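User: Please predict the structure of the protein below. I'd like the answer in structure-token form so I can feed it into my own downstream comparison script.

Assistant: Understood. Taking the following sequence of 153 residues as input:
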Amino acid sequence: MRQTTWGTFDPSQFKSLVETGIPCVQRMGIQVVEMEPRRVTLRMPIEGNQGHLGSIYAGVLFTAAEIPGGALFLTTFDPTRCVPIVKSMEIKFKKPALTDVTITVEISQEEVDRINREVEEKGKSDFVLEGQLKDAGGAVVCESKGVYQIRRI
């Protein structure tokens, strides 16, 4: 069990936290496909998330691109000692998402070590996560670049 700013959790509960911990994300139906240290894959269903053109609504795609940063934080860093924030997010829409979409984000061990050192020395550290939302056929529908910060608590 770990005491975090969100309560006490067993790491096995992190999947549930990602899928249900934020009410609007839960309504969107984000699903954890893979969640391990330094690597996370999430799926966003098209069902219930369509806009006026029948494709996944742009705001939903934005959320699907941003949430993996928090999920990666949970599996990679110590949520009893620090918290994540999003400083900025850029998204490029490439084509309509007409199926469920998936996104994988990962971070190297070297980058994790750098971030942990900086948090210890300065109390915070910025890092960049880039991702691609892909449709069921593997086509890139969006590209994202998020600047995140880990802050010591």
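That's the full token string. DSSP finds four helices and eight strands in the chain.
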